[in-house]
Amino acid sequence: MNSVLAIARKDFEDAIRSRGVLLVSVLFVGLFVFGAYFFADAVSQAAQQAGNAPAQGGGGGSPDSNTFLRVLSSGVTLLVPVVALVASYSAIVGERTDGTLKLLLSLPHSRRDVVVGKLLGRGAVVCLPAVGGLLLSMLVFPLTGVSLKPAAFLGFILLTGLLAVTFVALSVGISAAASTGRRAVVGTVGAYIGLLVFWNQAVDPLVSRLANTLDWGQATVLKASITLKLLNPLGAYNSLVASLVTDSTASARAAVTGGIQLSRQAGLLQRVYAQQLSQQGIPFYLTDAAVVAYLLLWLVVPLLAGYAIFRSADL
Amino acid sequence: MAAIELDGVTKRYGTLTALDDLSLTVEEGEVFGFLGPNGAGKSTTINVLLDFVRPDDGEVRLLGEPVRREQSDAVRERVGVLPEGFGVYDRLSGRKHLAFAIDSKDAADDPDELLARVGLDGDGDRPAGDYSRGMKQRLVLAMALVGEPELLVLDEPSTGLDPNGARRMREVVREEAARGATVFFSSHILGQVEAVCDRVGIIRDGEMIAVDSVEGLREASGAESALEVSTESEASETALDDVRALAGVSEVRAAGTQVTVTLGDEVRKTEILDALESAGVQVVDFETRETSLEDLFAAYTEGDEAENGDSDAEDATAADEADEADPDGSVGDEEGETA
Q: Parallel, antiparallel, or unpaired: how do β-strands B226-231 and B79-82 relate?
C-alpha cells in the first residue's frame, strides 16, 4: 500500500477510537441538524404569524436554505477551525514526544509521507462529521416545507470541508515544526486568535498608512483592504459562502469588510462598498477563483513550512 | 556488500560529542552485537543509521545505499527496526500495529504467526496501551520481523523483557540469522551479546574501542568469569580433579567449603555441579560471577595501549588532570617535558 495512505489509515483508525472525536461528531451533527430544524421551525412560525413577511435574507423572497447558510456560516467560521486545530495540533509532535514517531519512521515512511498522511488522516477525521452533519441537515428542509437550494447547499458543504482541511493543514504544519507539545499549542492558539481577532484589526491601519505614503485613491484603498481581508482564510471562506447565497460577486467580496460576521450593523456599509466595487468592475484578484486560491495558499504554505523544519530536525 | 557501513561518523550535540569519528562495518549475514554502557553512543549510532539524526560528519551506508534524508525508502523496506525509546499507539490493538507494519512494507505476513513468534498469541486483540513494557517490546519486535527483512536493527531489544522473553528474543535472532538476515543489535549487557553474536563491537564515549569475534571477546574476558560453589563439607582433591578434567575449566581453587571454578571457555555449569555431586560433595549453593562490562573495557583498553603505544597520550591526560588538581606544580612539569 502507498506509504501516505497507510499512515492516513492508521491515523484515522487511531483517532476514531478517541472520545474527543466522538464528541465532535455528535456536536457537528447535532448543531447542523437541530440548527436546520429550529431555523425551519422559526421560519414557518414567522410566516404563519405575519402572513407575507418581508424577506430576512439577501436573496429576496421568502427565507430558504440560503438564509440558513448565512446564519450558519458565522457559527461554522468559529467552530470548524477550532475543531480542526484541536484535532490536529498534536498530530506529529504528539507522536514525536511519546515515541510512536520512531515506530512510524522505522517503517519505510519518509517524513514527507508522515506529514501528508497526517493531513489526510486528520482531515478525514474532521471532515467526515462536518460534511455528514451538513448532508443530514439538508434532509430537514423537505420535511419542514422551507425551500432547499441544493446547489448552494452542496457548495457550502464543499467550502466547509475545504475550510476544515485548510485548518487541519495549518495545524499539522505547526505540529510538524514544533519540537514540544507546548509549542504546538502556543502556535495553534496563536494562529487561531491571530486570524480571528487581530488580522482584520491590523488591516485597516496598515492600509491607511500605505494609502498616505503611496497616495492611494479611495478605490485602491477599498480594494487593498478587501484583498488583505480575503487573504485571511476565515475571510476567504465567508466571502465564498456569500458568493453562493448572493448573486453579486461585489457584495460577496464586500462581505469581508464588516469583520468576519455578517451582522446587520455592517450591512449598510457593506452595501455601499459593494456598489463602489461593482461600479469599478471586479479585478482578477477579487474573483471567486482568486479567493479560492487564497484559501488554498493556507492549505499549502504552512504545511510546506512545517515540513521543511521537520525534515531537517534531529528526533 | 556490507550490510552496515559507518565511516568517520561524528555527531555533536552542542558541546557534547556523542560520536567521535566512528567507523564500523557489519558484513552481510552476520549477527553483530553492539556493546557499550548506557550513554556510550549506541542509540546515537542507530539513530544515525535510521536517519533519525543527521551526523555532522562522515558517511553512512545501509545495505550499500548511502543514508540521506528522505531518500532511503526503498532500502528501508529491506530493514526491520526495533528502535529504542519507542511508544505504541495506545488505542490500537497489537494486531492493528502489525497490520500497519504489513501495509507499510507491502508484505504478506500473517499477524497471528508473528504474534505467536514473539509470544503474544492471544493478546493480539487487546489495545497496545494495556500491554506491559515487555509485551510492547515483543510487539515492536514482531513489527520489525514483518516482510523478512535482510537487515534487523534492534536497539536494546531485551529492555523490559523477563528471562523468558529475553530467551525468546535470542531464539528469534538465531532464527533470523539462520534465514540469512543480518542482525545488528545493541546491548549494555555482555551476556546477551555473547550468547548469539558472531562478532561484537564495543563502544565507549562515542568511540569504537574494539571489534572482535566472540572467541576474542571470551579470551579477553574469560579469566574474569567464575562459578562460586558452596559445599556442605570440604571438597576432596579427587572431586576437584574431576572438575579440573572438564573441558573449558581453566582453574579450580578450594578454600574451606568454598570452591571457585574459573571458566576459560564455554562450559556448562551443571556439568561442574554434577562432577562435584558424583564425587560425593554436597552442593549447598552456587553463584556465577559474570564478567562485567567494565572488566571487559579494562581488558580491551589495556590491550590497546600496549599495542598502539598510546601511553604518551595517557601521560598527557594525566598531566592535564594533575594540572587541574595542582596548577603550579604541573606547569613546571610540562615545561620540563617540552625542554
A: unpaired
| Coil, helix or strand at residue B260 | strand
> Which member of A3, A13, A95 has the closest CB to residue B96?
A13
Give the residue from A206, A259, A212, A210 showing the smallest Cα distance to A232. A259
Domain housing A203 = 198-292
A221 and A107 assigned to the same domain: no
Q: Which residues of chain B have pLDDT under 70?
A: 71-73, 218, 221-225, 264-267, 290-295, 297-299, 301-339
Pairing of strands B283-289, B226-231: antiparallel
At how many degrees (to 10) do helices B293-308 and B214-222 cross?
100
How would CATH label the architecture of B2-219? 3-Layer(aba) Sandwich (3.40)
What fold is seen in the domain B226-289? Alpha-Beta Plaits (3.30.70)
Residues A15 and A87 in one domain: yes
Tell whether A54 and A125 lie within a shared domain: yes
Q: Where are the beta strands (DSSP E) in B134-257?
A: 151-155, 182-187, 199-204, 207-213, 226-231, 249-255
Per residue in A211-242, pLDDT tens? 888 888 888 888 888 899 999 999 999 999 98
Residues in chain B: 339
Q: Tally Cβ neighbours within 10 Å of residue B296.
A: 20
Please, which residues 125-164 of chain A have a Cβ atom closer than 8 Å to chain B?
A: none
Q: What pTM was estimated for this model as a whole?
A: 0.80
What's the domain count of chain A? 2
Chain A partners within 8 Å of B140 (Cβ)? 103
Q: How far apart are the first and last CA of chain A?
A: 26
Q: Phi and psi dihedrals of A310, rounded to 5? A: -60, -40
Q: What span, in angstroms and rounded, lies between the C-alpha atoms of B336 and B339?
A: 5
Closest C-alpha among B98, B128, B61 to residue A17: B128
Inform me whether the C-beta atom of residue B83 falls under 8 Å from chain A C-beta atoms.
yes
Structure-block grid coordinates of residue B33 = 552485537
Q: Which amino acid does the sequence have at B318?
A: A
Residue-wise pLDDT for B37-60, tens only, equals 888 889 999 999 998 999 999 999
pLDDT band at residue A263 using 50, 70 and 90 as cut-offs:
low
Spell out which residues of chain B touch residue A110, defining contact as CB-CB under 8 Å: 70, 73
User: Which residues are CB-neighbours of B31 under 8 A, at least 6 positions away?
Assistant: B173, B177, B182, B183, B185, B196, B197, B198, B199
In this complex, is the C-beta atom of B28 within 8 Å of any C-beta atom belonging to chain A? no
Same domain, A96 and A239: no
- Cβ atoms B174, B152 nearer than 8 A: no
**A190 and A227 assigned to the same domain:** no
pLDDT 10s digits, A42-89: 888 887 777 654 444 444 457 888 888 888 888 898 899 999 999 999
**Phi and psi torsions of B13, nearest 5°:** -115, 100
Query: Chain B contacts of A102, Cβ < 8 Å?
Result: 52, 83-87
Cβ proximity of A225 and A277 under 8 Å: no
Residue of A nearest to B101 (CA): A107
Q: Are residues A111 and A189 in the same domain?
A: yes
Q: Give domain limits for chain B.
A: 2-219, 226-289, 295-338
**Cβ neighbours of A9 in B, within 8 Å:** 100, 103
Instruction: Specify the amino acid at residue B62.
Output: L
